[in-house]
């Protein structure tokens, strides 16, 4: 799986450099969607591969299975489990210091799809509100 992932990453980078492949969204698109609280957009779709362009129509059947296994591993280990740990740490701080005020900031990746840090905190009984860009806290 590691060799497959490295080869696919190199092929993608070579395609980018040659101009035969373009990323479907820009950094500005990511910032706009994040600032607007539009995290359910196609950019942050749950079904989007966590390893860009590993799962595509040009893969052979056995390569597609490998790509899906890698994507599942990354989603579980790097997103879901990490969000669970981060959410528990937030909860622990809030419970340990109930009279304190906190500000927590997370990267956009922690709000993608299902099982986000927000989902973890809501399951713990906390109310979480989005603060749009430019709104006073």
From TrEMBL:
Give cofactor(s), names only: Mn(2+); Co(2+)
Can you say where in the cell this protein is located? Cell membrane; Membrane
Asked whether the keyword Membrane is assigned, the reply is: yes
Q: Which GO terms describe its biological process?
A: negative regulation of Wnt signaling pathway; proteolysis; Wnt signaling pathway
Q: Which GO terms describe its cellular component?
A: plasma membrane
Q: Name one GO molecular function term.
A: metal ion binding
Which is one Pfam family of this protein?
Answer: TraB_PrgY_gumN
- Does the keyword field hold Glycoprotein? yes
> What membrane topology is annotated for this entry?
Single-pass type I membrane protein
UniProtKB keywords:
Cell membrane, Glycoprotein, Hydrolase, Membrane, Metal-binding, Metalloprotease, Protease, Signal, Transmembrane, Transmembrane helix, Wnt signaling pathway
Cofactor-binding details, from the entry: Divalent metal cations. Mn(2+) or Co(2+).
Give the chief site where it resides. Answer: membrane
Q: Which InterPro entries match?
A: TIKI1/2-like (IPR040230), TraB/PrgY/GumN_fam (IPR002816)
EC numbers: 3.4.-.-
Q: Its biological function?
A: Metalloprotease that acts as a negative regulator of the Wnt signaling pathway by mediating the cleavage of the N-terminal residues of a subset of Wnt proteins. Following cleavage, Wnt proteins become oxidized and form large disulfide-bond oligomers, leading to their inactivation.
Q: Which family does it belong to?
A: Belongs to the TIKI family.
PANTHER family (UniProt xref) = METALLOPROTEASE TIKI (PTHR31120), METALLOPROTEASE TIKI1 (PTHR31120:SF7)
Name of this protein: Metalloprotease TIKI
Provide the taxonomic classification: Eukaryota, Metazoa, Chordata, Craniata, Vertebrata
Q: Which gene is the coding source of this polypeptide chain?
A: Trabd2b_2
